[in-house]
């Protein structure tokens, strides 16, 4: 995707220096910063403290982190420690463990002197696979938007609602929930996107920034406005992302997604989830019971980051000493999900639906 007319990915390896660089998302949408990650600690902090965020991007960052670490020390002990440190950064997004397991299983059998080169090749494979997965999700999701557009008067936009940022900033490129939107724009289909603010970190502002850079019509709304818009027939389709999806199609995504699914069901609005296959956790079925939900720091609730007269800074919005609770994710049961948009097609949210598209993985 583009920033100021220049193409960027959310993470990349510099072709000249070999350094891994990221867009530091802590400062968006107020300031665009690129930083370099070198040490294992820097990769771990970038994931834990959300310099990078979004399940696919976390996985890609972890793969680069392993490559960087084994370049310095390719020993078995360091490979194991690197995977352990990175895996401990965030518990919910399954792509993190998926990427680390892939790296460990591929590198462990290799001779010590071969690991560094192989690790960089593997990291690039993870990155390029993510780009292609999300491009194909966009193509498949475009069919839904095209169908709705065909039922509308000519020139009337398809109204989409999304929650959090499942855009290219949450992946390497294209995004998951936003990929069908970008494809619709490229196809000349008029769309308008309702962008949930997504407290507490207001990650909807990242989606608004992305869409603004792409010239896509959108409005930034408070989280609780979605149900109201659906009641008044102002939403044609809801598309969200996912950080972990169970084998039966329960979807874990940013806190508040479950409430959007309930509102969509009550108002007969289709609720779809853009699902890259690496986010499927085939080892679990009951998302509510089995998916660990990350509890994030209270300061994310008590303070809001924004632009002040003095620059970017925090403002406290709660009474001094007020207790907080900050679960980062919730689980939407499969019964509330109209369908899953994957790189291999669209299916119902069920084991049978997923297994039909991914028979090579469902076993």
TrEMBL record:
<feature type="binding site">
    <location>
        <begin position="53"/>
        <end position="55"/>
    </location>
    <ligand>
        <name>substrate</name>
    </ligand>
</feature>
<feature type="binding site">
    <location>
        <position position="90"/>
    </location>
    <ligand>
        <name>substrate</name>
    </ligand>
</feature>
<feature type="binding site">
    <location>
        <position position="203"/>
    </location>
    <ligand>
        <name>substrate</name>
    </ligand>
</feature>
<comment type="function">
    <text>Catalyzes the interconversion of methylthioribose-1-phosphate (MTR-1-P) into methylthioribulose-1-phosphate (MTRu-1-P).</text>
</comment>
<dbReference type="Pfam" id="PF01008">
    <property type="entry name" value="IF-2B"/>
</dbReference>
<comment type="pathway">
    <text>Amino-acid biosynthesis; L-methionine biosynthesis via salvage pathway; L-methionine from S-methyl-5-thio-alpha-D-ribose 1-phosphate: step 1/6.</text>
</comment>
<feature type="binding site">
    <location>
        <begin position="253"/>
        <end position="254"/>
    </location>
    <ligand>
        <name>substrate</name>
    </ligand>
</feature>
<dbReference type="InterPro" id="IPR005251">
    <property type="entry name" value="IF-M1Pi"/>
</dbReference>
<dbReference type="InterPro" id="IPR027363">
    <property type="entry name" value="M1Pi_N"/>
</dbReference>
<dbReference type="GO" id="GO:0019509">
    <property type="term" value="P:L-methionine salvage from methylthioadenosine"/>
</dbReference>
<dbReference type="InterPro" id="IPR042529">
    <property type="entry name" value="IF_2B-like_C"/>
</dbReference>
<protein>
    <recommendedName>
        <fullName>Methylthioribose-1-phosphate isomerase</fullName>
        <ecNumber>5.3.1.23</ecNumber>
    </recommendedName>
</protein>
<feature type="active site" description="Proton donor">
    <location>
        <position position="243"/>
    </location>
</feature>
<dbReference type="GO" id="GO:0046523">
    <property type="term" value="F:S-methyl-5-thioribose-1-phosphate isomerase activity"/>
</dbReference>
<dbReference type="InterPro" id="IPR037171">
    <property type="entry name" value="NagB/RpiA_transferase-like"/>
</dbReference>
<dbReference type="InterPro" id="IPR011559">
    <property type="entry name" value="Initiation_fac_2B_a/b/d"/>
</dbReference>
<dbReference type="InterPro" id="IPR000649">
    <property type="entry name" value="IF-2B-related"/>
</dbReference>
<comment type="similarity">
    <text>Belongs to the EIF-2B alpha/beta/delta subunits family. MtnA subfamily.</text>
</comment>
<keyword id="KW-0486">Methionine biosynthesis</keyword>
<keyword id="KW-0028">Amino-acid biosynthesis</keyword>
<feature type="site" description="Transition state stabilizer">
    <location>
        <position position="164"/>
    </location>
</feature>
<keyword id="KW-0413">Isomerase</keyword>
């Amino acid at each position: 995707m583009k920033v100021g007319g220049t193409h960027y990915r959310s993470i990349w390896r510099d072709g000249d220096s070999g350094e891994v660089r990221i867009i530091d998302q802590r400062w968006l949408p107020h300031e665009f910063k690129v930083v370099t990650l070198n040490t294992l600690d820097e990769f771990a902090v970038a994931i834990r403290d959300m310099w990078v965020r979004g399940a696919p991007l976390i996985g890609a960052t972890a793969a680069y982190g392993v490559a960087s670490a084994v370049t310095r020390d390719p020993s078995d002990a360091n490979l194991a420690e690197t995977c352990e440190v990175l895996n401990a950064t965030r518990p919910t997004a399954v792509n993190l463990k998926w990427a680390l397991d892939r790296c460990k299983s591929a590198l462990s059998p290799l001779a010590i002197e071969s690991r560094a080169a192989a690790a960089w090749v593997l990291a690039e494979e993870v990155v390029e696979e993510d780009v292609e997965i999300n491009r194909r999700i966009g193509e498949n999701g475009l069919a839904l938007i095209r169908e709705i557009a065909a039922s509308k008067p000519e020139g009337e936009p398809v109204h989409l609602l999304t929650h959090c940022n499942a855009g290219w900033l949450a992946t390497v490129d294209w995004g998951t929930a936003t990929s069908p939107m970008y494809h619709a724009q490229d196809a000349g289909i008029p769309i308008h996107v309702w962008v949930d603010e997504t407290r507490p970190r207001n990650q909807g502002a990242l989606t608004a920034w992305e869409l603004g850079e792409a010239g896509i019509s959108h409005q930034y709304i408070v989280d609780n406005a979605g149900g109201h818009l659906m009641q008044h027939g102002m939403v044609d389709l809801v598309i969200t992302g996912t950080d972990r999806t169970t084998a039966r199609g329960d979807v874990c995504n940013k806190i508040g997604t479950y409430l959007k699914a309930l509102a969509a069901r009550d108002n007969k609005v289709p609720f779809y989830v853009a699902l890259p296959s690496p986010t499927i956790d085939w080892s679990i079925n009951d998302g509510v019971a089995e998916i660990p939900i990350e509890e994030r720091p209270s300061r994310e609730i008590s303070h809001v980051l924004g632009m002040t007269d003095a620059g970017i800074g925090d403002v406290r919005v709660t009474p001094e000493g007020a207790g907080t609770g900050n679960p980062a994710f919730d689980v939407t049961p499969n019964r509330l999900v109209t369908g899953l948009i994957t790189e291999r097609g669209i299916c119902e949210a069920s084991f049978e639906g997923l297994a039909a598209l991914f028979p090579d993985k469902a076993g």
